[in-house]
Amino acid sequence: MTRGHLAGALGVLVLTALAAGPVGAQDALRTAWGAPDLQGVWDFRTITPMERPRDLADQEFLTEEEAAERGQAAVARNEDLASREARRTEIDPSGNVDRGVDGAPGSYNNFWFDRGTSVIATRRTSLVVDPPDGRIPALTPEAEAARAAVAEARANTGAHEPTPGGWVDDLGPNGLQVRCITGFNSGPPMTPGGYNNNFQLFQTPDTVVLYNEMNHNPRVVPLDGRPHTGLRQWAGDSRGYWDGDTLVVETVNFLRETSFMRGGASADLRLTERFTREGPDLLRYVVTVDDPSTWTRPWTYEVPMQRNPDPIFEYACHEGNYSMAVILEGARRRDLAAEAAK
Question: Per residue in 180-189, pLDDT tens?
């Protein structure tokens, strides 16, 4: 789809959504055509981890006190980082420019981060709800071997650098994020990240659009029962349908890995996303991840999203931007220096 056609499609969707009237004026948060009204900007930031921490192995939910303590700790951390004296960033010993010393960010100062300061509304100790232990299933032997090989090839190489001797295609598991092809939290599927944890949902009777703030990436999802095209795309090929009051979006035909789990999935990934409006300000997002090439069994995570009254703003990141040239130039100089030191 061209940019012009996409802009036109989004415009039609916006006008149709506005024609549906305000949510409060409709019966049980429904559109003018009777479907559950899921429209709006939804915020999925949270400090709840994807996996349950090992020290909480037998604890599925936090108490109110524990949830409050974690929120207070997040606020205190932000205040500490904001009150520190200005200083030149020093990256941590691993060489990762995203992590600075003393717990500070590396590439940006903390002003630019927006991870949130609260756990999810359910107070669950992890986003993962299946398996019941709140942990992501084990990797397949093939996936484990592949990750080990990448880790060995990229030893002492930063997350934003090519493998020694490599170019654009050798940026490693973080490469799609570095190249601004996919946002690190937009996947698909969506996962809470360091910033830009918002997406907007548009509806018409036969189509929805999932528009991510990160990398301004829209997924146009038909609801009319048409089959998948078989065309592989960066964000896959999505089709949707209603299961009662829940919107179900099934996505297949990925071009290759996405930014999900830092490039952790494969092109065989099959996603089932479920969107359920549970109140004026709450949208429950449940994702089942099925990638037999990567994990030994399917797994599911859940994120209660909060309504955001603010609009989606532009995220100006594009492939071929100035930083890509700088990254490659720096890598070539590093390679030359290593060769000269032999």
Answer: 888 889 989 9
